[in-house]
Each structure stands twice: as C-alpha cells, then as structure tokens.
C-alpha cells in the first residue's frame, strides 16, 4: 500500500446498514455513512441541531474543555443566518487578487525556505508554518503573529498525549481574549476589530460572541488544513506523473483541488444532537442523543462516485461534502480552496519530484473504525526543477 493512500474504513458498514456506532466519553454517536442520508440529516436542522451544549457536536466532544459557543458553527437557523450574513463577506476575501498575491508570496516563501534543506519534515516545517502564516491573511493581522501560533503545534485542543487538552485550549482562549482587548484599545482592519464594530439583531456583539467566532476561526481550519497540505505533498511524492500532468494541464487545477479534498476529507465527521425521537436507515434515534454526519464516508459512497477510492484529478461529477452540506457549510472553505490551488501552482513551478524518506500515519480511532487522517510526521526530500 502506498504511504499516501487513504483507505475507506466505512465501506462495509455503509453498504450493509448505512450506519456506524462509536462511544465518545460516554456520549455515544450514531454515525450516518451514506451520502444521501448525510445530506438529508444535514438539511434537517430542526431534528438534528447544532445549537446544543457548546462542544457537544464536536467528536471527540469538547464539553469538558470549553463553555464558549462557537459562532456560527454552534448556532441554528434563523440566528445562524444573521451571523453568516455578517461575516461571510470577510471570509470571501480570498477571492480578491491582492489576497491571492499575498498568499502566493507566503507559500513560495515557505518552499524557498525548505528547499534550502536536504530534508523536510512536512507537518511541522511546511504545513504548520504555511497554515499559520496564511491565517494572518484571513484575520488581517501582522505576519509576525504566526510565530506565536506555530509554537502552539498542529492542534489547539489536542496534544501528543491527549485528544482533549484543557491547558492547551486555555492558551488559545487567553490569547483571543487579549487580542479582543487589544483591538478594543486600538482598532485596526482586522477581524477582531470588525466584530467589535458589528451589531447582530440590533445589538453590538458581546465579547463572548466575538470569542466564539475567533475560536472557530483558529480551531476549525488548523489540523484540517495541515492534514490537507501534508496529504497533498505525500500524494504527489508517490504520483509524480500527476504533478507533471498538472504542469501540462493547469486548467484542471480547480478540479484537482476538489478531488483531493474529496479523497482526503480532512474533517471525518461532525455531530448533531437529536431534538426529538427520530429514525435513520430504520434505526431509532432517541431525543438528546448524538448522530454524526460522516463526510469522509459519504465522500466514498460508491452509489455516487465512480471508482471512489481512486484520485481522479479531473473527476467530472464531484458532489463531495468535505466542506459540509446545507446551512452549516464551511465558513473557511474559500480560504482553504485558495490555499490548495496556490499550493498546487507553486509545486508545479518549483518541484521536479518529491521522495518520501520516513513517515508515521495519524490514525483516528472511531469505535469499530480506524481512519487515517494524515501524518504525524512525513519526512521528504524535495527535488527542485
Ligand atoms: C471546532 C471544529 C470546527 C472544534 C468545522 O470544525 O474544528 C475542530 O478542530 C475544533 O476542535 O472546536 O472548531
């Protein structure tokens, strides 16, 4: 098996029952595995809510490490829309030429640095640095801020030893509180300042609400982007012909981005809490229990995707749900897509080939399923063009 390959642990369960089951801190989860069912449940926000106790829709549950509600992610319609309407334009800035130029400069800079070295550990020396520097564009804060974030490591709520690290989370919360204070004292053109000046439903946003938006912005796009960048580099290391193909056919870059995101599905699943007794695939779901929308499984659904376990760079029909579906589609998707597109463009310009020297998989255990989400480390040698 190739090191960059990502298997589909859900295939049998998806075909046999459409469901999977896992425990998570004594709050079990019924996992919805098929694309059609995932879409149906995502659409039905009245029965399957996001606005439950803060942290409960995340798997592993974060109820023990935070009380702040992440916004708009843990808010249901109709309030959800008022928040999205407010912040969507800001999160669409990656479509602007100036943003794209700065992002290109960041990604080229990261590659220029690692190309000086004989070997590169991609997770810590490339993906984490790239994600952190790119985040300064999304927040519109000084590039030097990224040095602090790089020191936090790949996940802000997880450490090497525990899946949920309250002390580590506290570092993020304290940092965000201090930044909100800073923006209050001297407002600028950053996201904190924008939120401090914003009103929702006729009232200025509270600091707790602003904190909720900022925690989401930091946490939601961290390990997901890092895994996506690392997986992409691993993939092209083992498929040099595809790197050459993109160089010859740059018009398929956008399709390739969608296909890599479908295949690697960096966010395995997201939970919801049932507000009433319901049933999925003839299975009873009790009120106040959790289900999950398993994006990673849905994205390999053989009823929808031909050869679901192959990366088909120019896949024609690709209705993947890697960025979620319905009301709660990913707020950071424009930024994430722009990172991936730029990464591919920089790679085809700069690299001839990539050789994997050493790697260790990052595996999630989800009840009966084990899923590779990326790498704990991936050491490569880049060969320049
Ligand atoms: C939450 C989540 C959002 C959660 C779309 O995903 O990402 C996770 O990585 C965080 O731990 O708090 O932000």
Topology:
Elements: H1 11-16, E1 19-22, E2 29-32, H2 35-43, E3 48-49, H3 79-91, H4 97-114, E4 120-121, H5 122-139, H6 145-151, H7 166-185, H8 191-196, E5 199-200, E6 203-204, H9 207-220, H10 223-238, H11 240-248, H12 253-264, E7 270-274, E8 278-280, E9 283-285, E10 290-293, H13 295-298, H14 333-350, E11 351-366, E12 369-384
Parallel strand pairs: 2-10
Antiparallel strand pairs: 1-2, 3-7, 4-12, 5-6, 7-10, 8-9, 11-12
Helix pairs in contact: 4-5, 4-14, 5-6, 5-10, 7-9, 11-14, 12-14
Residues 58, 62, 70, 73, 157, 216, 219-220, 223, 267 line the site of 6-O-methyl-beta-D-galactopyranose.
Summarize the structure.
By secondary structure, the chain is α+β, with helices and mostly antiparallel strands. It contains 14 helices and twelve strands. A hairpin with a 2-residue loop joins strand 11 and strand 12.
